[in-house]
Structures are given as structure tokens and as C-alpha cells.
Amino acid sequence: MTPVISPFALFFASIFTSNILLANFLGMCSFISISKDMKSSNGLGLAVTVVLTVTTAVNWGVLQLLEMLGLEYLRFIVFIIVIAAVVQMLEMIIDRVSQTLYMNLGIFLPLITVNCAVLGVSLFMEIRDYSFWQSVIFGFGSGLGWWLAIMLLSAIRQRVEKAPVPAGLKGAGITMITIGFMAMAFIGFSGMLSVQ
After folding, report:
1. What is the pTM (predicted TM-score) of this model?
2. Does 24 or 82 have the greater pLDDT score?
3. What is the largest CA-CA distance in the chain?
4. Residue 79 CB: number of other CB atoms within 10 A?
5. How far apart are CA 127 and CA 5, in angstroms?
6. Where are the domains of the chain?
7. Could you give the CA distance from residue 36 to residue 105 in angstroms, rounded to a whole number?
8. Average pLDDT over residues 80-102
9. In sequence order, which residues have a C-beta less than 8 Å from that of residue 103 and are 6 or more positions away?
10. Could you give the CA distance from residue 30 to residue 82 in angstroms, rounded to a whole number?
């Protein structure tokens, strides 16, 4: 049975209180690597948002079809195939529309296919037994949450570059501390709304 969750609560929770990146720590590799540059972070955030929205909607339909056919044991493989197809189409579109963004994203654009946040959202959609519209709202909100987090980290990293950081913390050390503080800030919203 589909849980009764208001669309606003689901949308807000997927961005802030149950942020796929800062509450569930899914999709960290490209988040840390690309967040050095605002333009690339924005492009990747947009790409992940589109992929999450589209793949969650498509995977919901695929899951319904697999359940009708009694083939739900194939869901992981089919989810990954759908994600790979959507990412491939998005990669071709970005290559045609913005060659600069395509070059800036480099290897991380095709790696959205194996970004665990994308598969994680589809699996959460299944585990939580969301309806189609709940799945789309959750996918879109999760994408916006991922985008918000990478843009925030990118902005903070640009400020920290000019700050007097101890030599032992420069680079990865201060980045991990920053991510920890960001996660605590987002989890601070968790008393307001939670999606389980």
C-alpha cells in the first residue's frame, strides 16, 4: 500500500531532511571531485537532477511491468540499464549543446550511470512503495537536493581556498570537514520532516 505523504512534504524532505547526498551519503565521489569549480558543479547538478527525475519515473513504470510479469527479480539489472540509457542520451545532448560543459564534466558525466545516488533513489522508491507521482516528486527533489549540496560545497571550497587553512588540512582534509558540517546542517532539518 502506498504511504500517504503530501507532495510538499515529500519534495521538501527529499531536498533537505532526507537529502540523498548529505543524509544518506550516496553519490559522494563525483560530488567531491567536481565541486572545485562552480560552472562544472552547476552543470553536473543539473545533469544529475534530470537523470534522477527521468530514471525514477521510467523505473517506476518498469517495476510495475516486471511485477505484472512476475520478473521483479530482474529489477536491479533493468534499473541499471534504464539509468545507463538515460545518461547516454543526456551525454549526447550535452555534447551537442555545450562542448565546454561536456569537456569540463569529462569522465564524471558518463559516471552518472554508476552514481549510487541515482540507483539509490530508484531503490528507495521501490522500498517505500511510492506511487508514480510520489516517485517523480521524490526523484526531482532528490536531484535538486544533490544539486544544492554540490553548489554549496563548490561555493564554500572557493572561499576556503583563500582562507588561512593549516597545511595538514589543505585539500581533502578541509573538504571532508566541510562536508561533515554541511551534513550536520542538513540533518538539523530532520526534526521538521522525515521520509522513511
Report:
1. 0.86
2. 82
3. 61
4. 23
5. 15
6. 7-191
7. 12
8. 87
9. none
10. 20
pLDDT in tens, 57-78: 999 999 999 999 999 899 999 9
159 versus 58: the higher-pLDDT residue is: 58
Enumerate long-range contacts of 184-189, CB under 8 Å, 24 or more apart: 186/16, 186/17, 186/19, 186/22, 186/23, 186/149, 187/17, 187/22, 187/23, 189/16, 189/17
Cell of residue 127, nine digits: 522500498
Q: What are 59's three cell numbers?
A: 523505473
Q: With bands split at pLDDT 50, 70 and 90, how would you rate the model's confidence at 3?
A: low
Q: Which of 144-148, 149-153, 158-162 has the lowest mean pLDDT?
A: 158-162
